[in-house]
Write a structure and sequence with these properties.
The complex is a heterodimer of chains A (1010) and B (216). Chain A has 32 helices and 40 strands. With 1010 residues, chain A is of the alpha/beta class. In chain A, strand 6 and strand 7 form a beta hairpin. Chain B is mainly alpha-helical and 216 residues long. Helices cover 42% and strands 1% of the residues of chain B. Chain B has ten helices and one strand. In chain B, helix 5 packs across helix 6. The longest helix of chain B is centred in the N-terminal third of the chain and has 28 residues. Chain B is extended. The model of chain B has no long low-confidence stretch (mean pLDDT 93). The chains are: A alpha/beta (1010), B mainly alpha (216). At the A-B interface, strand 2 and helix 30 of A face helix 1, strand 1 and helix 7 of B. Strand 2 of chain A pairs antiparallel with strand 1 of chain B.
């Protein structure tokens, strides 16, 4: 197998020099939309690649078979094929309950409300449970931070629960210990500290918003007044906290009201797909862009950013700019809007003339309906400037409001962790208790946790897996997953949710509440009672607390806990101090990874294989550079020397070096390099260990997010990357249709211009009656977040294939999010398009199947019958949309017992050698159909919700009966923005798209190329 | 040049070619026949069970309703197997010391479930739903056979797909009024086809033969 040869061709970015690209991009004969550099330059590799259905190597067997072996294999398989027809079903057992729990009906799923957290902030979810076995996460419509939607992280937490690599035993200095033994040792350690008020005790936790946990910690700190509590996460939100302090003199929580904002400016913020409240923000934002008729209005989004993000891709105007220059832009905008105290240079570099005044005029015209959002990586001053501008525009309490902090005890985490390290170095820490954090991997590298952690006399860590930190602690205690524990947490607006367990801990793990109970000497009290008693104490006035408690558990939110808006007053003189003189040189920007976050999800195969938005990379992290910078960093004018994607380079920053693969990223700011946290784990599990490079290794204490002075040296090696980009190419058929709002109002039928009226077909016309399923996808709403991809994977038991298989195009996702660029390589517009099976009425796949394994249902579904499939792959060959996925190997894990519990019992787990594809979630259709039939009523519109639709935060996907003119999907399809993908093929797809609209500012003619 | 092959070769080749074709056909037929024997299908083979439970006694003689034990049959895909508690509802009062019931009492005492041998099973790629069949007038005994006569329960039908399709293609031959669905002694009337057609209209029964009805 020639992997190394084929890799290069498949990853989309072969030896294409940028000058050729530039020429191609400016010339007239290039496609309007392009997916990768080689398509744009139309290289021979690309032409060869697109003529083949699968990338080179996908069809070849892994081992070289000679003729003799092949005959043996074929004879054996023929014999087995004959034998398998004669097998009897094995004897099975039925094991009923002894005492059946009241609400469990075998075969019917129950849904429980709980919450999953990221960075301490809760998203309300409903968990599907089959006979006490959680199988799927859905959003909780009653939770303000979800409204029924979920992100990829929460979807994937099911796999996190069943992860076979989770730690399963207490480990004491490398040997198996016991919980009782640990309690004894801990009480000895704490007892010794009692005399000096616990001055040697440190508690290290992630960000805590949980009121119960906070209460427990405060109890502990009362008993040991000199002990210290440190909160730390490497993707810390210190900048937001400190920004509020700078502007208002206190820590505050900022909540945006996207439903009120008509003009939005983001300063390096990815508020649509990242951070607390992003699901809610995406929904409110998309609703402000829904164009249903000529009178509809759209909001307008300006994005200033360094690293391309989903939010930038949604923007009507995107300005790329080095992350460290954004402060200058914020100052300029502030001054333009009359925040008079702001100092600094008059014009930030690289901003097209007229851009800032035009933006400022637009903002000014929308007082109280505009909004400035600063990004997590931007320094506090940018946040403070954003607050000041919002204040000046009268947006406070309209499009943005402030509440008390979500955290129980907001603190500067970066300072906290360095103080902790200093204390350990000074030998003043005798007992260190770590709840979930992994400082050996993710604390700032110059603190040297790896060296200093063994200096602590007694250290214990509660963690989901035995990772880098556990290995250096005296005790490792297996942690109970969130779906196994009692707890609580606050959502983005302060709404508290009670976290309830769906299943008893699979590996006897302890929750954070359990752990703190031991510290507080209350180990006999069950964790449920702590949460229950805390809220009972809060609701002392409630007459029947048991009723209130039941309702809380049922709803998933604690009534009336949303934090009230707080009156704030801006401190005078924000930005009066001139900006620090800018350090020169190449900039480095650190960001949490899109799918792995800070590394905590690194052992999650679903998230590893979820293509990262915009790059469509899987299983790896990269160092992103702009095409121009890649050219300059090549060190010579010879195109062959330019940096190319997959070149391994040495990144040298503040004295440390690390080797990383380059990714040439269209739309990235010049003279800046973005690296992503979370990869390069040394002890993660069989999925995460060793994947990617550890950007944390060059992330010093001084510059957690943005720094300058990076040096890059080519190593001459190649680092093969697995991306789904340019595979399944659309060959320039304008798959995405776009217009500006004005163009659309002038020509409302622009998206349907090419449509032919009643095209003829060789196939007989079928009259479709009764329920006819169809789907409409609003490209105006899709943010490309990828939540639907993981939701589909969880719902339909889709296998993970691994990096090597992704490289040769064998990934199995039933829904993919295509990304298209429009415009030049330096600053193109970016569009997302979710593509799944179109369920064509004239389906090309059906007519070529020799065994009728893919057939049409009377309700318009293109059905895939696994038992008939013999794996010819003719169907996939004939599918113009390339949505069929083939099991080249036994990708589904049929051996790991812990994964059996995870599977959706209503969907077959596919075996080797069969084709699979989107079924429109036929198991959900059938379940609703049976319910409706039993009640003798028609199926209600909106009753059937596919997994992708369910998870979508921006309501981009709508499914329903297209024969019912009143259904939502019919109404969407009746809109003049509706168009069919590859309509000229007359496949008559049931999945259609609503054309994307942009709402640019007429004063800024065109997104300026800088 | 002399003939290489003797004239008889013509006959031999004809016989062997036709013979091979016939042999394959016969073998295929034989496999099909074997596949329909109760050796493979387990039809009419009473299965050993941990408790000698008699449907004949409970249904035929005492007249218990199916739903007393199989309580989710109207609500769910699964008809449900009774928890030990259901057995003990009666057997904590009657036959309290019968030796035959010791496994049931032991289960209740020790909270260890009884592990029954499954009698009626469809493969994992078949998604059968009891509730919709019951709601549309398919009686229990239509598939499960004369349950009121079974001392030890056996499988009445092969549960092969061709058997499923007999009804899915022509439901009128099997439907009964909803009121009779749980009647273990029901005998179809002589005008079954007419009744079936009437019930099909009344219950809006469709002839569902599309693959995803059962496979997904």
């Amino acid at each position: 197998m020639e992997f190394m040869d084929s890799d290069r061709k498949n990853t989309g970015q072969p030896d294409v020099d940028n000058s050729a690209l530039r020429k191609a991009a400016s010339g007239g004969e290039t496609p309007r939309f392009w997916r990768g550099f080689d398509e744009l330059a139309d290289t021979p590799e690309f032409r060869n690649h697109k003529e083949n259905e699968f990338p080179h190597g996908a069809n070849d067997p892994d081992a070289k078979l000679d003729r003799r072996d092949l005959l043996k294999v074929m004879a054996a398989s023929a014999a087995f094929a004959g034998l398998s027809g004669c097998t009897k079903l094995p004897n099975q057992k039925i094991v009923p309950y002894v005492r059946q729990p009241e609400q469990i009906i075998p075969g019917k799923a129950l849904f429980y409300a709980t919450a999953v957290t990221l960075g301490g902030v809760a998203t309300g979810v409903l968990v599907e449970s089959h006979m006490a076995r959680p199988t799927k996460i859905e959003g909780n419509p009653d939770h303000p931070g979800s409204l029924g939607a979920t992100d990829a992280f929460s979807q994937a937490s099911i796999l996190g629960l069943y992860d076979p690599d989770r730690s399963q035993a207490e480990i004491h200095d490398g040997r198996i210990g016991s919980w009782a033994e640990f309690q004894e040792e801990l009480s000895t350690a704490l007892g010794a500290e009692k005399g000096n008020n616990g001055s040697g005790v440190r508690l290290l936790t992630p960000t805590v918003t949980s009121p119960t946990l906070g209460d427990q910690i405060n109890t502990f700190l009362k008993a040991y007044p000199s002990a210290k509590w440190v909160q730390y996460e490497s993707a810390t939100r210190d900048n937001i906290r400190e920004g509020a302090k700078l502007a208002f003199g206190e820590y505050l929580n900022t909540v945006y009201r996207m439903d009120q904002a008509d003009v939005i400016l983001t300063l390096d913020s990815d508020f649509l797909t990242s951070g607390p409240g992003c699901l809610r923000y995406a929904r409110d934002f998309a609703r402000k862009r829904r164009v249903e008729g000529p009178e509809s209005k759209m909001n307008r989004l300006y994005a200033v950013e360094c690293t391309p993000t989903n939010t930038g891709a949604m923007a009507d105007h995107r300005l790329r700019m080095r992350a460290s220059d954004i402060e200058g832009l914020a100052r300029a905008v502030a001054r333009e809007l009359g925040v008079s105290t702001v100092a600094g240079p008059v014009a930030p570099p690289n901003v097209p003339a007229g851009w800032i005044p035009a933006l400022a005029r637009d903002l000014k015209q929308h007082p109280g309906a505009s909004l400035i959002v600063a990004g997590d990586q931007q320094p506090p001053i940018v946040h403070a400037l954003a607050h000041a501008i919002n204040q000046a525009l009268g947006n406070t309490d309209k499009t943005v409001y402030f509440t008390a902090p979500l955290e129980v005890s907001p603190a500067n985490q970066w300072e906290g962790i360095s103080q902790l390290a200093a204390d350990i170095r000074a030998r003043s820490v005798t007992t260190l208790l770590i709840l979930g954090c992994n400082p050996v991997y993710d604390a700032p590298v110059d603190l040297g946790f790896k060296e200093i952690l063994p200096k602590v006399a007694f250290s214990a860590r509660l963690g989901l897996s035995e990772d880098e930190t556990s290995a250096l602690c005296h005790w490792h205690i297996p942690q109970a997953h969130e779906l196994e524990s009692w707890g609580d947490a606050r959502g983005y607006d302060g709404t508290a949710s009670v976290i309830q367990p769906l299943i008893a801990p699979l590996y006897g793990g302890k929750s954070e509440v359990d752990f703190l109970a031991v510290i507080n000497g209350q180990s006999a009290k069950p964790s449920h009672d702590f949460v229950h008693d805390y809220w009972q104490a809060q609701r002392a006035g409630v007459e029947r607390f048991d009723v209130f408690w039941e309702k809380t558990l049922r709803d998933g939110v604690v009534d009336g806990t949303a934090l009230p808006p707080k009156q704030v007053s801006l401190k005078p003189g924000i930005g009066a101090e001139p900006p620090a003189t800018e350090a020169q040189g190449l900039e480095i920007v650190f960001r949490p990874d899109h799918t792995i976050w800070d590394g905590r999800f690194s052992n999650n195969g679903w998230l590893q294989e979820l293509p990262k938005p915009l790059t469509l990379l899987t299983w790896d992290s990269v160092a992103m550079v702009s095409p121009k910078t890649a050219q300059r960093l090549g060190g010579s004018s010879r195109p062959a020397d330019y940096l190319k994607s997959e070149d391994a380079v040495e990144l040298k920053y503040k004295g440390r070096t690390i080797v990383a693969p380059v990714w040439v990223m269209p739309g990235h700011a010049d003279e800046s390099v973005t690296v992503f946290l979370g990869y390069g784990r040394r002890r993660s599990g069989r999925v995460g260990t060793g994947a990617g490079f550890d950007a944390g290794w060059i992330r010093p204490l001084a510059t957690p997010w943005i720094g300058t002075g990076l040096e890059i040296r080519k190593t001459g090696d190649r680092w093969a990357l697995a991306t789904t980009q340019t595979q399944s190419t659309m060959e320039g058929r304008e798959p995405i249709r776009i217009a500006t709002l004005d163009e659309y109002l002038k020509n409302p039928k622009f998206a349907q211009a090419e449509a032919e009226e009643n095209p003829l077909s060789l196939y007989p016309e079928v009259k479709y009656e009764g329920n006819q399923w169809g789907m409409a996808i609003d490209l105006n709403a899709c943010t490309g977040c990828g939540g639907c991809v993981v939701a589909c994977q969880a719902e339909n038991n889709i296998a993970v294939v691994g990096k090597k298989e992704v490289m040769i195009g064998r990934h199995m996702h039933w829904i993919r999010i295509d990304r298209y660029y429009e415009g030049g390589v330096d600053d193109p517009s970016t569009y997302h398009e979710p593509v799944l099976c179109m369920h064509c009425e004239n389906a090309p796949c059906e007519v070529v199947c020799p065994v009728a394994a893919t057939v049409h249902s009377p309700e318009g579904l293109n059905e895939m019958v696994y038992n008939r499939c013999v794996g010819t792959r003719y169907c996939s060959n004939n599918c113009p949309y390339k949505v069929r996925r083939f099991n080249f190997y036994l990708y589904s894990d049929w051996d790991t017992p812990s994964l059996f519990g995870m599977r959706n019992p209503n969907v077959s787990v596919r075996s080797r050698g069969v084709m699979e594809k989107c079924s429109y979630c036929v198991q959900r259709i059938n379940a609703v159909k049976i319910d409706a039939e039993r009640q003798d009523r028609p199926i209600r519109d909106g009753e059937i919700v596919t997994a992708c639709q369910q998870s979508c935060p921006s309501e981009a996907i709508v499914f329903g009966n297209i024969n019912d003119p009143d259904s939502r999907v019919s109404k969407l399809k009746a809109m003049n923005r509706n168009y069919k993908l590859l309509e000229e093929l007359n496949t008559r797809p049931r999945t259609t798209y609503l054309a994307k609209l942009r709402n640019p500012n007429p004063e800024i003619e065109k997104t300026p190329a800088v | 040049m002399a003939q290489i092959f003797h004239r008889s070769t013509n006959t031999i080749s004809r016989v062997s070619i036709y013979g091979a074709v016939i042999l394959i056909a016969v073998l295929g037929y034989a496999v099909d026949v074997v596949n329909q024997t109760s050796y493979v299908t387990e039809v009419h083979n009473a299965r050993p069970q941990p408790v000698l439970f008699s449907h004949k006694h409970h249904v035929g003689e005492l007249g218990l309703d199916c739903r007393y034990c199989h309580s989710s049959v109207e609500d769910s895909s699964s008809a449900g197997m009774p928890p030990t508690q259901t057995c003990m509802a009666c057997h904590s009062q009657i036959w309290t010391s019968a030796a035959i019931l010791e496994p049931v009492r032991a289960s209740y005492r020790d909270s260890t479930p009884i592990s029954w041998t499954r009698v009626n099973a469809v493969p994992d790629f078949v998604y059968f739903n009891h509730s919709i069949h019951v709601a549309k007038g398919v009686g229990c005994t239509t598939c499960h056979g004369p349950i009121a006569e079974m001392n030890i329960t056996w499988r009445e039908e092969s549960l092969y797909m061709r058997w499923c399709l007999e009804c899915h293609n022509a439901p009128e031959k099997y439907l009964r009024p909803r009121s009779e669905v749980f009647n273990a002694f029901y005998k179809p009337p002589s005008d079954q086809e007419a009744l079936g057609k009437r019930l099909m209209a009344e219950y809006k029964v469709q002839k569902l033969t599309t693959c995803t009805t059962c496979h997904r």
